[in-house]
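Course assignment 3, question 2. Fill in each field.
Student: A.L.
Task: Predict the tertiary structure for the chain below.
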Amino acid sequence: MNILLSNDDGIHANGIRALSEELSADYNIYIIAPNQERSAAGHSITLNSPLRAEEIEVKYGEKRAWAVSGTPGDCVKIGVSAILSESEKPDLIISGINHGPNLGHDIIYSGTVSCAIEGAMMNIPSIAVSLNLFKPTLDDLKFSAEFVSSLIPKLDKFKFPEKSILNINIPGIAKDDITGVSVTEMGGRMFTDNYEKRTDPRGRVYYWMAGKLSTEKDNDNTDITAIRQNKISISPLSFNLTRKDVIEDLDKVLCQNNICNW
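Answer field:
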């Protein structure tokens, strides 16, 4: 099996290293990741400037590796469409392991999740993996990588729905303190939107985002609740944002009396 690894923390991040070192014994691993940190880049792609993809020396057991000058989404898009040969094309895309969680509404901003979504847009089974620890060491990430390795064979029995990914969040605690695995829904707000107003030495005002953990209550089946209960959260997510349940009602309101017949 060929596996493409990418991330938003950059090609030299501990998370992608941990995955490559763990998975390369059993799979053909290819790394295509940003040449610098691109956290919270969301699902952006580069349109108005050239992308540079530099093949770099392999270090972590992977077959080949490239550092890309663009966004996380760029890395997967250009990797599958232009960089990898036919024999290297991925059977699975894994984004991560992210340094920090991707839970609730904050998923919308996530470059890690966007890597996986880009893969799903090309009909490739894709997973985003995050550890609830913001500055993890390589040792901190070892269990997360082992969990992903144990999960891959189990997914042989799972048919990824079209336009969907799995978003995995792992508690940033000792392995023995993890209480289980939970298949979850996307929760609400993980952090509040607080900005601190400050003044620089030249007297100019600037703002610094200083969000705090939200106290918003979630139901018992959300990713946020699972992490708070020291469980690994696995959420099936779709990027098809259509609210099919309201199409009929909207059509009745907007198109009554034949006003949709321009």
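Instructor remarks: The chain is about 25% helix and 25% strand. The CA atoms of residues 135 and 250 lie 47 Å apart.
Grade: pending
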